Amino acid sequence: MKIKTISRSSDTYVPVRNTQESSLPRNLDPSLHPFERAREYTKALTATKLERMFAQPFIGQLGNGHRDGVYSIAKNFRTVNRIATGSGDGVIKYWDLTTRDELYSFKAHYGMCSGLVVTPTHKLLSCGHDKTIKLWKVYDENFEKEEYESESSTQGLEKTFLGEHAFQSLDHHYNDTLFVTGGATINLWDVNRSRPVSDLSWGADNITTVRFNQTETSVFASAGSDNSLILYDIRTNSPTQKIKTSMRSNALCWNPMEAYVFASASEDHNAYLWDMRNMSRSINVFKDHVSAVMDVDFSPTGQEIVTGSYDKTIRIFGYRKGHSRDIYHTKRMQHVFITKFSMDSKYIFSGSDEGNVRLWRAKANERAGPKSTRLRNKLEYDEKLKERYGNMPEIRRIQRHRHLPAVVKKAGEIKRIEIESQKRRENNERRHSKNKQYKSEREKHIVGQVHKQ
Amino acid sequence: MAVYSKDRKLNANLKRLDQQHKDAVRSAKNTEILLQEDAGFLEAEGMEKTYKFTQDSIVKEVDQATANKRFELKLEEFGPYTLDYSRNGRDLLIGGKKGHVASFDWRLGKLDCELHLNETVHAVKYLHNNQYFAVAQKKYVFIYDKTGMELHRLKQHIDSTLLDFLPYHFLLTSAGNTGFLKYHDVSTGELVAEHRTKLGPTQCMRQNPWNAVMHLGHANGQVTLWSPSMPTPLAKILACRGPVRALAVNRDGRHMVVAGADKTLKLWDIRNFKEIDSYYTPTQANTVDISDKGLVSVGWGPHITVWNFLKSHQNSPYMNHMIPSSQIQTTRFVPFEDILGCGHSKGISSVIVPGAGEANFDALEVNPYETAKQRQQTEVLSLLNKLQPDMITLDPNVIGSVDKRAPSKRLTAKDLAELQPSQPGQEIEKKIKPEVKGKNSTVRKAKRKLRQNVINERAKRIERALEKEKLLRKQKHDFSKGIQPEKDVLEGALGRFK
Question: Where are the WD repeats (chain B) (predicted)?
Fold first, then answer.
């Protein structure tokens, strides 16, 4: 007879000393693991519920905010914890994000401070409705706070550029000493000169926003009040092409990862994603806002965009998704005029009409600070589970549910009905007319396209 | 590569997922070389037959640790005994018919508690770990803890003789003389479902460990499959010609073994409900159990027979054992051990069956060597991941899989009923009803006059006229709707008799 029985020695499985870890042998035979799907689903459901339980997007406001609405935020692409904000009364404040306190504030302009940007040499460039552009020296570690205590101080002011019209917007070149301003005309300036280097206007309308491409550095784009988007190249010192849309664009932002992609925030409640190589149609439409989108910003990873809207909410969209991943709002936040991702893509700043600068988490349930390996593994596993079972009705319902302000909810409902009836009408027209073509949602808003000869 | 969809992006994602799945399966397969333990076996050499080996000869051959696991408990006063092992196989719970219940660590011989209940004990069952157990007594089911303290009297479970526990759903199920199957959630204390079987006292009950469907054996030879969400059985199997005596389902949910009072022992494939094989027992079997590795133990009279017939037909059993002058009440294989526990009228005996148990346990699932701390953690985690009772279905992987049927077929029964057009005849009947303006059509007036139990020529004539009128109306309606008149098949041959 040949015989063998299972005989385990408990010494291999039971720890001898209490400092020893007990061995945990695994056996991946599926018959030892029944209800695999059902158990994973249950875990995914729990993870989704926990995510919603931990969702606390609002961190706080910076200091005591401004006295007037915040219309410009400048972030430094090379540091994480400093930003500058400019407000409607011409005051610029410089913030330390670690303490969420203001480092210094000063009155820079008479009237509104409409544009604010950090130069590659760590200086601050601001423009205003008082026809001036000012260069400030603030990004210096040795700078003493007292100098800026008094309002309308001129200490720290390095240079003033005098323009011929009120400025609406400005942006600085990635590494050269060039910057561009928008207003009644669009001008290219050199920091070392006091007069504009060139005038790049194409058409006679006001330019509301200009934005340099940070990767393909000699390209920049502008949006004007004639509903146009214009692309320029400073190597040829001329505009290259112009797109006319049905409504005005309020803001622009280039994708930091894909140099040819940019997003525009439109007055028609949508944000659009464009490919500058082919502008006959936009490559994505971000819907959900119920009022004009005032600002748009890409996350430094290029995977998400954040939009602020006149409907007093902030929305975060996946780069290739049509609807928002999340919506942020508070009772006191008024029309949002500016939103920016922080340079580590984990936070969002928003400036709104009532003068506060708010700090939000980009992922509402994420927490900063070091995590143990176990916690990190658990969070990663939960993410994967949520992704895998995200389409189950119950999980989807919990994941998508957001509390909305009554006004926004009502407006959303009305808008949905409007769009439905419009679509129905278009369908009917198409059915009963001979050559009415279907127009996709991505090209509906485009009126015309021109290339500069 | 397979093309899943016209959408290129979706297609690429699906391909990637498919590849990931394949890689996962392959790497899981590769982990087999990391398994530490080897399974047991018993092989005959030369003229020997494995079913001739006695336990005494086996005990001499095996190692000392295994030999120690062979023991007999002489408990002649309170028998016959039924028994149950905890999920990790470490503890043994025994219940004597006459009220003797004991829970102990059977390898160390350490007694947890011993109770004399002074009332009939029908069944005993450990809950999710060795800390709690349920006992089906004369009238009610009681839950005790490890120290033997009575925690709950489940007054909804009256006259239960059979108990089972679904560990992933935390459901205690009971069935018995009332013919009711009851599901009780032991984590919340709620009675989840009670189903009336309408088939008299339930003879036997076991769970399918793969999908948590309860299998009930009845006196009319039927085995019915139940889930808490359905008031009727999911399936009915006519398994034998007499009452069902015992049944068991193996751990991957493919096979069911049914022993009947007609002395048959049948192997069923319960994925497509087909009988695979049929054997017989010399007398009626009392108990059947299937081990982790697919050995089948049958207790009949004083005998225990162990078969290995799940994979192929066998002409002789794998092993035999007899406990003289006793009746086998219950046999249960010990999880993760090569041991068969056997409760009979004179006590408990533990029999060595090489090759029965799963050698390599998964410590994160069920751990026979768990410490108190690990047991507590496992308990908390399993409560967090408790499955809902309505997730019990015949196919446990139905969650998260796509229903590939056409949308029209995917609708619920109610939707389908609404969609289906009502019987064509009925519709016409409704339509061709004459508009009832008044009762005073001439024909009707005449008919009303003649409404009595007299059949005369005139009444017949009027009747015929009415009939004809109705027919004409129907024809007119059909013509307007474009319905072709039905062709009378007998027209040609029998037309002349009209």
Answer: 237-278
Q: Write out chain B residues lying below 8 Å of A9, CB-based.
A: 65
Which residues of chain B from 345 to 364 reach within 8 Å of chain A, CB to CB?
352, 354, 357-364
Contact yes or no for A415/A269 (Cβ under 8 A): yes
Pairing of strands A157-162, B150-154: unpaired
| Lowest pLDDT segment from A77-91, A148-162, B458-472 | A148-162
**Structural domain span for residue B249:** 50-352
B443 assigned to some structural domain: no
Work out how many domains chain B is built from and give that number.
1
CATH code assigned at B193: 2.130.10.10
ipTM of the complex: 0.79
Query: Is B379 in a helix, a strand, or coil?
Result: helix
In a domain, B164, yes or no: yes
Query: In the structure, what pLDDT confidence band is assigned to residue B205 with cuts at 50, 70 and 90?
Result: very high
Mean confidence (pLDDT) of chain A: 91
CA distances to A36, A184, A207, B426 from A250, rounded to whole Å, are 50, 16, 10, 65
Closest residue in chain A to residue B365, using alpha carbons only:
A33
Cβ-nearest to A25 among B53, B363, B388: B363
Residue percentage of chain A with pLDDT more than 70: 96
Q: Would B84 be classed as within a structural domain?
A: yes
Nearest CB to B37: which of A8, A41, A392? Answer: A8
Q: Which residues of A touch B61 (CB under 8 A)?
A: 1, 3
CA distance B25 to chain A (A): 10
Rounded percentage of chain B residues whose pLDDT exceeds 90: 72
The helix-helix angle for A36-53 and A373-389 (nearest 10°) equals 110
Contact A3 B62 (CB under 8 A): yes
A3 and B61 within 8 Å at the Cβ level: the answer is yes
Those residues with Cβ within 8 angstroms of residue B153's Cβ, 6 or more apart along the chain or in another chain:
B140, B141, B142
The whole-angstrom separation of Cα B104 and Cα B173 is 23
- Report yes or no on B458 lying in a domain: no
Asked if B78 contacts B117 with a C-beta cutoff of 8 angstroms, the reply is: no
Count CB atoms within 10 A of the CB of residue A11.
8
Task: Give the one of A6, A37, A392 whose C-beta lies nearest to B40's C-beta.
Answer: A6
Give residue A137's pLDDT. 85
A41 to chain B: which residues are within 8 Å by CB? 399-400
